[in-house]
Every structure is written in C-alpha cells, then in structure tokens.
Design brief:
- The complex is a heterodimer of chains A (about 300) and B (about 240).
- Chain A has about 300 residues and is an all-alpha fold.
- Chain A has a domain of about 210 residues.
- In chain A, strands 1-2 form a two-stranded antiparallel sheet.
- In chain A, helix 4 crosses helix 5 and helix 9 packs across helix 11.
- The mean pLDDT of chain A is about 90.
- By secondary structure, chain B is α/β, with parallel strands linked by helices.
- Chain B folds into 2 domains: about 160 residues, 3-Layer(aba) Sandwich (Rossmann fold); about 70 residues, no CATH class.
- Helices cover about 35% and strands about 25% of the residues of chain B.
- In chain B, strand 7, helix 7 and strand 8 form a beta-alpha-beta unit.
- In chain B, helix 4 packs antiparallel against helix 6.
- Chain B is globular.
- The mean pLDDT of chain B is about 90.
- Classes of the chains: A mainly alpha (about 300), B alpha/beta (about 240).
- Chains A and B meet through helix 9 and helix 10 of A and helix 2, strand 6, helix 3 and helix 6 of B.
C-alpha cells in the first residue's frame, strides 16, 4: 500500500536526520541549530494547526494560547515543584488539552469565522489570566528555568535539534494516522458541510472536539519545548501571536488539509524567514504577507495542491 | 409511526411552530404544504433535533425522541433530506454514499444498500468516481436521497426535493419517491410544489403561520375551497 511507504519514509528521514549532530558539532554551528530548532517547532505547530484547520476545517486563531499553556505548564512545574522541564514535558500537551476542552466548550458552539474569532479571544483571555495571577504565575515578570539537563546530559543545540525533530516526526505520524483512518472522512465531512454531516448521523461536535484536542496537545508540546530551549517565559513571549500567524501562513503555502503540506511549507518559509529576520528586523512577516497574497491568488491549495493538479 | 403532540418551536422570541399535532402512519407519504415562512422546514428541523428549543412531544415508533441530538435521531432511523442540495462537494459520489453509511449497525449492509441506491438512481452508478461538486442539481438531489437511503431509515423527511430542478428532473425524482414508497418507505414530504406533492401523497396537511390550517386526504385538500383560493387550479 502507498501509505505504508509514507510511514517508512518518515521513520527513515527522522532516523537519518538524528545523526546530524554527529557530523556537525553544536559548538561550531550554534546558529544553524537555532534555525533548525525553530524549523522543527514550526513544523510541529503547523502540523498541529493543519489537523484542526486543514483536516477538520475549523480555522483557529488561538493556537498561541495552547502554546502558552504548554509553556507555562512546564515553567510552573519547574518553578513550584522544581521538576526538570523534561519530566514536566508531557504536562505541556496535557495542560493544553485541558485548556482546549474549556475553550472548546464555548468555541465549538460557533461556526466558521465566529469559531476562529472566539479562539482568538479565549487565547487572549488565557494570557490575561496568566498576567494577572501574579502569586502563582509571577505575572509579567516571567519565569526563569535554570536547569535544563536531560538525564544528566548537558543540553546542547544538537540535542534540542534531535528532541524537536522527534516531536515534529511524532506530529507527522499522528497526521498520517488520521489521514489513513475513517476519521479523515468524518473530519472532512464536518469541515466541508457540517449540516450535511449531521444529517447523515455524524456527531459533528464530537469530531470537532477530537480534532481540537489532538491539535492542542501538539501545540502545547511545542510550547513546552520552546520554554525548555529558551529557559524563560513571560506572558508576552509565551502567548506570542506570531505562533498563531506563522503556522497558518506555512500551512496555506504548503497545502492545507494535506499531511506533508505543513512540512514543505515550513522547510521553504522558515529558512527564508530566518534570513530576513536577521537582515531586517521583523521583515519576515512582511515576506510572509506578500507570499500569502501570491498563494491565495495563484495557488489557493498550496504547493501540495499545485503538484497534485499537475500530476493529474 | 410518528406522533407529534402540540409541538412548539421558536427562533429566539419568534415562535415559528405554534402547537402542531400530527400522526404519520407507517407506509404512507404525508405531505405538508403551505406558504413561505409557514414553518414547514422548521417542523422537519424540530423533528430531527436541529431546533435548539422545542416544547411538546415527538414520539417515533414508540420511542420518545423529543430533545434528542440529531445524530441520535439518525441512529433511531429518521433520515432528513434537507433543503438545498447538501452533498460533500470535494468527495466522490461513492464517498458521499459511504458517508451515509456512517451509523455503525448499518455498515454490514453497505453492499446491498449501494445496489439498492443504484437500482433507484442508475445515474449515480455512472458517476461513481466523479466529484460530487461537479454533479448537476438533479444528480446532487439524487445523491442526497441516496445518502439518506444508505442510513436504512424507517422514515425519510424530505424537504423540498423539487427546489430548483427542471420539470423533467422533478418528475424523475418524484417517480423515485413513489417507487420507494411502494417498497414500504414512509415519507414525510415538505413541498412548495403543491400539485406534485398532493399527487404523490395519500394524506396531507396545510400549515399556515405555524399551525395546521387543514388536514385530510390529499384528494380532499386538492379540492378544498380555501386551498384552491390560495393555489389556483388544483381541482
């Protein structure tokens, strides 16, 4: 079967790329590993956004909220209970899932743009709560994570690269599993025509919630990994709107609703964005904007959709 | 088979159904006619759980279905073919039909049900691997009905099957409905096309302003004075 090839390709790619730190040392290529870390995180985030927005058709403007929840879960467990960020890491995803249940209980009553806007609002509300609850979250002062050792090994750029690589690979695996299961059709049906889906007996709300929870778990995990890497989080950086915007751009450019669209989008956009970011501050967002207009006009189904059309 | 007692439904403060009482017998086609905005589609939506607030009682084959969720009602055996042609445009005809077979207990019968649908609508078999969005309006209507049949319902609620279709296609859709009914399917039909509806159904009700203005055999309704005043030249 064609799909089993995709699993093998994914596994081989992740295994081979895991060898990279053996060939290139972390000390000499510090900047490279920073860029690769960002790339992996954005693959993870874009795949996460695509599961909800691309597969299930529920556009979220609130992914930064899930990232922030994950980031704060790790930071708070470290701050209050002195847990190593790596021990606390699973709680990043779990916290985001719990947050998504709360957000979903409100937002999933709404459809289309109203759903999107309510996720944006609820993400902002979460940020305000974190900001205001100073006694517990340290408010705008933020939280510093002093110790980031993993099983006694000093965490270097190379190690962060491998960890985030596996996280991104894990997200792609989940994405593939969904795409090859019945759930793909349920998500597609609900995303495309919710009324028709309900008419054939599909519990639309249930599947929208499933997609939201899987998506939130992966976004929360990304937040936890970011915090472990930077060693610091405050509401501004933890709930940064860019973490919502970039995955959307990447997914649209790569191809919404496809498994590998977010991957291709990230591989193309992130290095170019990094270059522009260092040359001209924040210019990468301008670049994304122009690219988005071009894609919306000429390739609305992204790169994957474009190749599929040529393939036919 | 379907018993509706004093059913009320509203959009916010606007009451659309003002106490509807109806009994649909097994094996019949029952049509509901009435002017625009009388509450015909709302009645169907209230039955299948698509209206947020309803009062009254709805009983289906001995089960109280008042207030159940749409997917639960679909499970119990009521299929709702909604107004406008609701298909999954990016899926193929076959995938659309398979979506109809979503209910677990009905999955075993997929092959038989597909054959049944193809016998009724041979056109769908010809277009099996075509994207549903590229079908004509009539074909999409056939597909929605086919999708409903894949659910093996005991009752089909049909909302305006003739809407936006050419006369020839309307005839062919109605022919299919007649055939379905002759095989024992109970159909609750909502139609603007009064003439067609009263020709095919055994009994009918006229709804005006959210209440039943007249109920009786379709023959009676066709010749009823009040109705011929509204809809000219039926008798």
């Amino acid at each position: 079967m064609k799909s089993s090839k995709a699993y093998i390709a994914l596994l081989v790619a992740v295994l081979l790329l895991s060898l990279l730190p053996l060939l290139m040392s972390s000390e000499k290529h510090k900047y490279l590993y920073d860029v690769l870390f960002t790339l992996n995180i954005l693959i993870l985030l874009s795949v996460s956004w695509n599961i909800l927005g691309g597969f299930a058709g529920q556009v979220s403007f609130g992914h930064a909220g899930f990232v922030g929840m994950g980031a704060y879960a790790v930071a708070l467990l470290h701050h209050h209970l002195q847990l190593s960020p790596w021990v606390a890491m699973p709680f990043s995803g779990i916290t985001a899932v719990i947050g998504a249940m709360l957000i979903g209980s409100i937002a999933l009553n709404l459809r289309g743009p109203f759903f999107a806007l309510s996720t944006l609002a609820l993400a902002e509300v979460t940020k305000l709560i974190v900001e205001g609850w100073r006694g517990f979250t340290m408010g705008t002062q933020g939280i510093v994570i002093a110790q980031t050792e993993l099983l006694g090994i000093k965490t270097t750029g190379g190690l962060y690269f491998i960890i985030t690589l596996w996280a991104a690979g894990f997200a792609l695996l989940i994405s593939l599993l969904i795409k090859n299961s019945r759930y793909n059709y349920y998500f597609l049906a609900v995303g495309e025509n919710e009324d028709a889906a309900i008419a054939v007996g599909i519990n639309a709300r249930k599947y929208k919630l499933y997609a939201l929870l899987v998506s939130a778990f992966l976004a929360g995990l990304a937040g936890g990994l970011i915090v472990a890497h930077t060693g610091f989080v405050d509401p501004e950086s933890g709930f940064d709107m860019v973490r919502t915007v970039e995955p959307i751009f990447i997914t649209i450019v790569g191809g919404m609703g496809t498994v590998f669209g977010p991957l291709i989008g990230a591989i193309l956009l992130v290095p170019a964005g990094e270059y522009l970011r260092t040359e001209f501050t924040k210019a990468h967002l301008l670049f994304y904007g122009v690219l988005l207009v071009v894609f919306a006009r000429f390739m609305p189904r992204g790169i994957m959709g474009f190749f599929r059309r040529i393939g036919k | 088979m379907l018993e509706i007692k004093d059913l009320r439904a509203s959009y916010g403060k606007l009451e659309v159904l003002k106490g509807i009482t109806l009994k649909i017998q097994q094996g019949e086609i029952f049509s509901i006619i009435g002017p625009n905005g009388a509450g015909k589609s709302t009645l169907l939506k209230a039955i299948t759980g698509l209206m947020p607030h309803i009062e009254g009682k709805i009983n289906f084959a001995g089960i109280d279905i008042t207030g159940l969720q749409p997917h639960q009602i679909a499970d119990i055996g009521i299929a709702h073919v909604q107004e406008r042609h609701r298909v999954f445009g990016s899926m193929t005809v076959k995938e659309n039909l398979l979506m109809g077979a979503y209910i677990k207990t009905k999955r075993r019968y997929i092959e038989e049900n597909l054959e049944y649908v193809f016998a009724l609508f041979p056109r769908l078999k010809e277009r099996l691997n075509q994207q549903a969005g590229t079908l004509s309006g009539g074909e999409q209507q056939m597909l929605t009905i086919g999708q409903a049949l894949m659910m093996m319902p005991r009752l089909i609620l049909m909302d305006e099957p003739s809407l936006g279709l050419a006369p020839l296609l309307i005839n062919s859709i109605y022919e299919s409905l007649r055939e379905l009914n002759s095989k024992g399917m109970t159909i609750l039909l909502v139609e603007q096309n009064v003439k067609k509806a009263l020709q095919i159904s055994q009994r009918a009700a006229l709804i005006e302003n959210g209440a039943i203005a007249f109920e009786g055999s379709s023959e009676e309704l066709r010749c009823n004075e009040e109705i011929t005043k509204i809809y000219l030249g039926l008798c």
